[in-house]
């Protein structure tokens, strides 16, 4: 049974769209459970009804015709209870609702199980039988298992086929498409054309695309086939002496597949029908895999892996062709399963209008980079139909986290209006650039900018920022093919320091690991955020750390505007070791005759242990900087990149606020200043609280700088302290956010917390 289950789930996951997925479910479940009917109802929250979407056993004409209100009928009962309902005689149940078009009256035994994804009822799967008997426990648990396994796949397929399905719903509803919902990654409205970015060599990640030149695509595919054949022949020869003949037969089987009709011919036919080579190959491989996985014979079933392997080999060659490099036209909205900071860094800035990623959240580094680049971004859109989006018009609403694929003219017009309002607000905010960042009663709160891009820092110098409060040095490392050397690093840092001088620049030492991978330094871990990252890596590799330390020290010679920040400090001894390496670098350079000084050193407080040892850490350095992005994830035990728990990730959690206060108090005892450089610093809703805590300065993305300044200029220090005191008595992050939104609305700053006005 486990096997059947696995196969059903696999098939559904690879279904090209929702309709096909649902058809597959009912077709497979009915014989697997030995029942007379299997049907799937999907819940449409907009129309507030459950709709029969697929059935095996009821009349096919009832599909889409049978619709029940949310609490109507037995299906409504299953959905509202969110648990299975198992009846021996459905027609005699008071909630039974009869639909003549279904032909359902002949069935008595009824079992309905809700399909739930992230607490949301997506629909109900129902099996029925003639016999007036309730279903046995085995069948109940099986259907519950199927529904649970399928929930994710349906949610995904729902989105993949959403457009097709919602068209059907729309016909009756006369409404616009339901938007997909993720989390806001970077404020703004991004409108344009989707360009799907996908990891190389992954067939499943290939998006649908049409061939721009069929003959060229065919040629490319045929060349790839020849290259793979050559590889396999070579491999077979090389291993002929060590492999037993039955294993060698595998290579012959591969060659047969590559010579044979089905795999190659079917792909060529798809290309001739207009599909782009990689997507034609993807569909052919999926089709073959399905045929093999359906086979009862375990030997033949395993051939599915061979087909997948061959598909991967062919794809690799096809992707070597320069034609496969994505084409970024003006108005590109980058779309992908997992858009990373380096994918974003690779795309041409001037063409980018937005970013939409199925994974990640507000504090993923891709979102942070998008904010730095002022590109609207929506992250964690779990059910994003990535495969079908390439070339479609899209809207990314970076305020609400909504995404519209092929939006209607009405939606488009509304967003164009919002974008105009937004541009006007930005203009008004720009007028603040020259004004000082101080509270109503004159307390200065210096605002610094977060950066980390090699590129132009003109936006920072134009923004009126006091300097750079967090320069993430990992980005220059990420866009290279190997570790940059001392001179290369020194030139990069010097360039920044010179442009900013005499303003201060705080550079953080390399903080890779977690979600920031270097392509040339792969780290494979089960729990990367709890693993080898930041200072842990650089202390283990003093040769890397010392090169960076020397480059940093040399880069500020004669300028004197550099501060250094150490990430991920969890132990006092780590700080001692890092400081000692910096001293070593300093002494070496002096011996070499360089005119270098030891810059002020600081520690990032981003791990709970550092909160409790804030005073001890502060005594050893010149300043502390609170990294709320990581501090929140470690205090709340919520992965900052995981969209499934994004709702739990909230830096306004009372525990995070109290931890920050504790850091400020610890630093004050040591007589050292504290800044904040996590994303919370750029959230206008948090500004009064941060001022009230007594933080000495903020470091934020340029896009948020004037917004935060506007808030600062609207409150006195005393008001901010009172707001903080009130908030510290609250227990619930959402209530805190609501309260703070109210405070900003009352102060006439509502446009900062909602799009448009
Ligand atoms: C933080 O953790 O708050 C921080 C500023 O560092 P990063 O986001 O680069 O991990
Ligand atoms: Mg961090």
Describe what you observe in this structure.
The chain is of the alpha/beta class and 757 residues long. The protein is built from 28 helices and 22 strands. An 8-stranded mixed β-sheet has the order 7-14-13-9-10-11-12-8. An 8-stranded parallel barrel has the order 15-16-17-18-19-20-21-22, surrounded by 5 helices. Helix 15 (458-463) links the parallel strand 15 and strand 16 (467-472). Helix 6 packs antiparallel against helix 8, helix 6 (214-239) crosses helix 10 and helix 9 (277-293) runs antiparallel to helix 10. Residues 160-176 have low confidence and may be disordered. The chain binds phosphoenolpyruvate (PEP) and magnesium ion. The site of magnesium ion (MG) has 5 residues, from helix 23.
Please indicate the percent range of residues in DSSP E strands (runs of 2 or more).
Answer: 15-25%
Query: How many distinct beta strands?
Result: 22
State the helical fraction: 40-55%
The description of the largest β-sheet is: 8 strands, mixed
Number of domains: 4
Ligands: phosphoenolpyruvate, magnesium ion
Distance separating the two termini: 57 Å
Structural class: alpha/beta
Question: Measured on Cα atoms, how large is the radius of gyration?
Answer: 29 Å
What's the oligomerization state? single chain
Mean pLDDT: 88
CATH topology description of the largest domain: TIM Barrel
Counting DSSP H or I runs of 4 or more residues, the number of helices is: 28
Contiguous runs where pLDDT drops below 50 for at least 5 residues: 160-176
Q: For the record, what is the CATH homologous superfamily label of the largest domain?
A: Phosphoenolpyruvate-binding domains
CATH class of the largest domain: Alpha Beta
Q: Mind telling me which CATH architecture of the largest domain this is?
A: Alpha-Beta Barrel
Q: Given the C-alpha coordinates, what overall shape results?
A: globular
């Amino acid at each position: 049974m486990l096997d059947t289950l696995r196969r059903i789930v696999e098939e559904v996951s690879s279904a090209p769209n929702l309709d096909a997925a649902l058809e597959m479910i009912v077709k497979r479940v009915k014989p697997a459970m030995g029942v007379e009917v299997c049907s799937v109802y999907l819940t449409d929250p907009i129309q507030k009804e459950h709709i029969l979407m697929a059935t095996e056993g009821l009349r096919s004409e009832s599909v889409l015709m049978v619709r029940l209100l949310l609490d109507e009928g037995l299906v409504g009962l299953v959905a509202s209870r969110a648990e299975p309902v198992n009846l021996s005689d459905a027609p005699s149940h008071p909630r039974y609702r009869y639909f003549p078009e279904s032909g359902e009256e002949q069935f008595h035994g009824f079992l309905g199980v809700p399909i739930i994804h992230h607490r949301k009822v997506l629909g109900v799967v129902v099996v029925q039988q003639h016999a007036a008997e309730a279903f046995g426990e085995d069948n109940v648990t099986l259907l519950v298992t199927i529904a649970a396994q399928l929930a994710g796949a349906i949610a995904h397929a729902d989105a993949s086929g959403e457009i097709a399905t919602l068209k059907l719903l729309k016909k009756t509803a006369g409404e616009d498409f339901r938007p997909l919902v993720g989390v806001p990654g970077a404020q703004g409205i991004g409108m344009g054309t989707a360009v799907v970015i996908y990891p190389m060599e992954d067939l499943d990640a290939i998006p649908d695309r049409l061939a721009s030149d069929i003959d060229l695509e065919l040629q490319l595919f045929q060349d790839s086939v020849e290259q793979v054949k050559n590889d396999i022949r070579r491999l077979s020869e090389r291993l002929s002496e060590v492999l037993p003949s039955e294993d060698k037969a595998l290579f012959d089987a591969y060659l047969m597949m590559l010579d044979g009709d089905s795999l190659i011919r079917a792909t060529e036919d798809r290309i001739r029908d207009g599909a782009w080579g990689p997507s034609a190959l993807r569909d052919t491989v999926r089709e073959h895999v399905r045929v093999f996985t359906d086979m009862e014979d375990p030997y033949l079933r395993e051939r599915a892996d061979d087909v997948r392997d061959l598909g991967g080999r062919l794809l690799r060659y096809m992707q070597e062709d320069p034609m496969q490099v994505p084409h970024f036209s003006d108005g590109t909205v980058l779309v992908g399963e997992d858009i990373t900071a380096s994918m974003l860094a690779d795309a041409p800035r001037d063409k980018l209008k937005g970013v939409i990623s199925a994974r990640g959240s507000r504090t993923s580094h891709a979102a942070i980079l998008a904010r730095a680049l002022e590109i609207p971004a929506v992250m964690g859109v779990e059910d994003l139909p990535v495969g079908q989006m390439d070339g479609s018009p899209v809207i990314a609403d970076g305020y609400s986290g909504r995404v519209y694929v092929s939006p209607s003219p009405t939606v488009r017009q509304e967003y164009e209006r919002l974008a105009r309002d937004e541009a006007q607000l930005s203009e008004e905010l720009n007028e603040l650039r020259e004004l000082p960042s101080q509270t109503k009663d004159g307390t200065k709160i210096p605002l610094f900018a977060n950066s980390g891009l090699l590129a132009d820092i003109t936006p920072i110098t134009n923004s009126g920022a006091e300097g750079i409060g967090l320069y993430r040095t990992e980005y220059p490392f990420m866009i290279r093919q190997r570790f940059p050397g001392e001179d290369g690093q020194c030139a990069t840092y010097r360039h920044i320091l010179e442009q900013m001088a005499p303003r201060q620049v705080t550079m953080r030492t390399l903080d890779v690991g977690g979600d920031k991978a270097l392509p040339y330094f792969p780290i494979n871990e089960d729990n990367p955020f709890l693993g080898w990252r930041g200072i842990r890596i650089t202390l283990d590799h003093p040769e890397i750390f010392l090169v960076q330390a020397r480059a940093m020290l040399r880069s500020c010679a004669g300028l004197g505007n550099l501060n250094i920040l150490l990430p991920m400090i969890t132990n006092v001894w780590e700080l001692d070791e890092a400081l000692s390496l910096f001293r070593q670098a300093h002494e070496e350079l002096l011996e070499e005759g360089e005119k270098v000084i030891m810059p002020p050193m600081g520690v990032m407080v981003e791990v709970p242990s550092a909160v409790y040892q804030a005073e001890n850490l502060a005594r050893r350095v010149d300043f502390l900087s609170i990294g709320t992005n990581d501090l929140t994830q470690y205090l709340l035990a919520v992965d900052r990149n995981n969209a499934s728990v994004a709702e739990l990730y909230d830096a306004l959690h009372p525990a995070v606020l109290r931890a920050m206060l504790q850091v400020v108090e610890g630093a004050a005892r040591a007589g050292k200043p504290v800044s904040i450089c996590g994303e919370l610093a750029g959230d206008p809703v948090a500004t009064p609280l941060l001022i009230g805590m007594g933080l000495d300065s903020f470091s934020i993305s340029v896009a948020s700088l004037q917004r935060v300044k506007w808030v600062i200029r609207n409150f006195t220090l005393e008001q901010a302290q009172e707001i903080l005191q009130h908030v510290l008595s609250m227990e619930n992050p959402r209530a805190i956010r609501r309260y703070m939104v109210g405070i900003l609305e009352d102060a006439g700053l509502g446009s900062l917390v909602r799009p448009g006005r």
